[in-house]
Amino acid sequence: MECNPLCQELTSFRVMDVLERASELERQGRHIIHLEIGEPDFPTPAAVKAAAVAAIEAGHTHYTHSLGIPELREAIADHYHQEYGVVVDPERILVTPGTSPAMLLVFSLMLRPGQRVILTDPCYACYPNFLRFAGAVPHFVPLRPEAGFQLDVAAVREVLPDVAGILINSPANPTGVVLESRALKELADLGITVFSDEIYHGLVYTGRARSMLEFTDDCFVFNGFSKRYAMTGWRLGYVIAPERYVERLRTMQQNFFLCTSSIAQWAGVAALTQTAAEVEHMRAVYDERRHYLIARLQQLGFGIGVEPTGAFYVFADARHWTEDSVGFAFDVLERAGVGVAPGVDFGPSGEGFLRFSYANSVEHLEEGMLRLERYLAERRA
Ligand SMILES: Cc1ncc(COP(=O)(O)O)c(C=O)c1O
């Protein structure tokens, strides 16, 4: 039996190849500094773990309402009200096993074969695959390093009308860029569906990230607990959808996932209501690392045109060393023992760049930079 051609089109993530090779080297006894992974190194906050244990002990171990437990949906609505001043009816929120399944449901619901959806280039490497799997066609709008990787809405306008929507991500993976509010406002006025992935909200170091909901109610907002609350393994996310689509999303969830883990959902209530101090601590520590990493990479000769102010990534220009980011990343891994993500993983405009994650301790960052310095000196010699 032949596989579904839509699955055959899915591309794999080169950074996973880097990670797998790094694990092989570790099995052979090499010590590797992992700057390729976009995963918080902090433990999940204590109150979240305690809430999960309490949920198990209280017997919250069964299917929940398919949209999610009311307590969590209300806490999410309160969170959006407190952070952005927007009023969200909890009835518009669907809780999912991570942000990724929310995207799968929404794109399956909203997109038809052949429809074009705008993505930025570079962007999170899974986005094009989500769209292709829904039968849609990604249309890339390049982001220029000289423009600080900001989205040029004029370039978006040029590809209209024949476009179903745009998927944005601010703060962005891999660039760490926070979109200007002017751009969000202009996107809201374009008359196409805006899908806004807000998973890195809360990890912003200067200024603040604005929610798409501050500019229009007629959009889909994805968010989750993986990054801000260091809860990647809990698999908890959600989508805030326009009211008219919720019933269909609910039917899809009922059929495909039934509901999200009851335990993770109770943990999510605690994350939103009891972790302000810990979340602020993590943010402050990321910010220290960010300053360190930017300065050190610049000292080593990497180009960082505009300071990244969100998420936990620095997208560094290595084009005066290489036009082959995959080859360079593997060479750095083999010879220096440092894992980094090749820029081309995130789109053709990322070629010649490397993504460094600072979701790692300052000690590891220091050691990684020392190894990189030696590697570059050898390379020059
Ligand atoms: C931009 C972006 N969106 C979504 C995800 C996946 O999030 P989740 O763990 O909630 O599925 C990631 C993970 O790296 C990401 O970088």
Describe this entry's structure for a reader.
- By secondary structure, the protein is an alpha/beta fold.
- It folds into two domains: 5-43 and 277-380, Aspartate Aminotransferase, domain 1 (Alpha-Beta Complex), CATH 3.90.1150; 60-274, Aspartate Aminotransferase, domain 2, CATH 3.40.640.
- It is 43% helix and 14% strand.
- The protein has helices at 5-8, 14-27, 46-57, 70-84, 99-110, 127-133, 153-159, 181-188, 243-256, 262-274, 276-300, 325-336, 362-380; strands at 33-34, 93-96, 116-121, 137-142, 165-169, 193-197, 219-224, 237-240, 313-317, 338-339, 341-342, 353-357.
- The protein has a seven-stranded mixed β-sheet, sandwiched between helices.
- Helix 2 (14-27) runs parallel beside helix 12 (325-336), helix 4 (70-84) packs parallel to helix 10 (262-274) and helix 11 (276-300) packs parallel to helix 13 (362-380).
- The longest helix is centred in the C-terminal third of the chain and has 25 residues, at 276-300.
- The termini are far apart.
- Pyridoxal-5'-phosphate (PLP) is lined by residues 38, 98-100, 124, 169, 173, 197, 199, 224, 226, 232, 237.
Secondary structure topology:
Blueprint: H1 5-8, H2 14-27, E1 33-34, H3 46-57, H4 70-84, E2 93-96, H5 99-110, E3 116-121, H6 127-133, E4 137-142, H7 153-159, E5 165-169, H8 181-188, E6 193-197, E7 219-224, E8 237-240, H9 243-256, H10 262-274, H11 276-300, E9 313-317, H12 325-336, E10 338-339, E11 341-342, E12 353-357, H13 362-380
Helix pairs in contact: 2-12, 3-10, 4-10, 11-13
The structure holds pyridoxal-5'-phosphate.
